[in-house]
Design a protein that fits this description.
By secondary structure, the protein is of the alpha/beta class. It has 2 domains: about 150 residues, Response regulator (Rossmann fold), CATH 3.40.50; about 160 residues, Rossmann fold. It has 11 helices and 12 strands. β1, α2 and β2 form a beta-alpha-beta unit. It is elongated and about 60 Å long.
């Protein structure tokens, strides 16, 4: 009888130890804008690798398309119900997501924005992201040098109205080009006489092509195209090529993904500002694990870096070449 009781005690201890281990494993949720955009695919890879290295469990979800706030809210609620104590999110709608984030934080969940801030930015505990205004400034400076004094006739293929990232990149581009522009705190798109057409691309290749085709109808004399990201840039290039105008137009963009860098090397994009989603995701997971184990929260904004990548170096503009861009594409610096 004593032996049976001892065996039972040992089995119970093993079960308790297993339960304690399960409870000790941090559960972290990652919610991206979409599942298909290469930028967010790479971000998910970075989060998964960091979670594995840190012994955390990663839950992932996304909206159906950029701007799908309802999908992100549902993903957040499901993750919290599954035990997530940290949520990493790239907000599709910087304002509409705030009530859901507030509820999560009131429950003791750490919420970190990756890549895109909420509006206002203090809606989350912390933000790990590119300095998107600076990213815009870099390609604006390059575009100005590339035109070499020619009068600018600019098309901007933006994200969609009111999004902080879209506004910061657009306005930074205008400032870098030397045009009047709102500061980095504004979510309104700056306008200038040199901008002959503005259209929303939603960061999508097909929508970018359609937007560029429409702008060509309105402003066939375009010689410079700014795009919110490289899929939109690829769409713009397709439209220009169909119109026989691709050799006479400078395209600049933001992202620095591996395909985007190939497009720089191929002459599709003249220059792009490279950001580092793997780094954002890894930092977010590490902060989540630290919070689970010590209760320490990150706060404020952490700049995850940006580098101008160009096929052709231009005087007065600090850039790196395509080889360097390919080595760094979406990784850490």
């Amino acid at each position: 009888m004593r032996f049976a009781r001892t065996a039972l005690t040992a089995a119970t201890l093993i079960a308790l130890a297993g339960a304690a281990h399960a409870q000790a494993q941090p559960v972290i949720g990652l919610i991206t804008k979409t599942e298909t955009n290469p930028f967010f695919v790479k971000m998910k890879e970075g989060a998964a690798a960091a979670a594995k290295a840190k012994g955390a469990k990663l839950l992932s979800g996304a909206g159906k398309a950029d701007g799908d706030n309802a999908g992100q809210v549902t993903a957040m609620e499901n993750m919290i119900a599954a035990g997530a104590k940290t949520i990493l999110i790239t907000p599709s709608d910087s304002k509409a997501i705030l009530p859901a984030i507030k509820k999560a934080r009131e429950k003791g969940v750490l919420v970190i924005a990756l890549d895109s801030p909420t509006d206002p930015a203090d809606g989350t505990d912390a933000l790990f992201a590119t300095d998107n205004y600076k990213a815009g400034e870099l390609i604006g400076q390059y575009a100005r040098a590339a035109l070499a004094g020619k009068p600018a006739r600019i098309v901007t293929l933006d994200l969609f109205p009111g999004h902080p990232v879209g506004a910061q990149r657009h306005n930074g581009f205008l400032k870098g080009f030397g045009l009047a522009a709102p500061d980095a705190k504004s979510n309104e798109l700056g306008k200038s006489a040199e901008v002959v057409c503005m259209a929303d691309s939603f960061g999508d290749r097909a929508k970018g092509q359609t937007a560029m085709e429409n702008c060509l109808q309105k402003a066939p004399e375009v010689n410079l195209v700014y795009t919110i990201n490289e899929p939109a840039a690829a769409g713009a290039y397709n439209a220009l090529k169909k119109a026989g105008k691709e050799k006479n137009v400078v395209i600049v963009s933001v992202d620095g993904g591996c395909q985007g860098i190939k497009d720089v090397g191929a002459g599709v994009i003249a220059a792009t500002s490279q950001q580092y989603p793997l780094k954002m995701a890894a930092m977010g997971v590490e902060a989540g694990v630290e919070y689970a184990r010590s209760g320490k929260k990150p706060s404020g904004y952490t700049d995850t870096g940006v580098t101008l990548i160009a096929a052709k170096a231009l005087a007065g503009v600090d850039s790196k070449d395509v080889k360097t861009g390919a080595e760094l594409c979406w990784g850490t610096k």
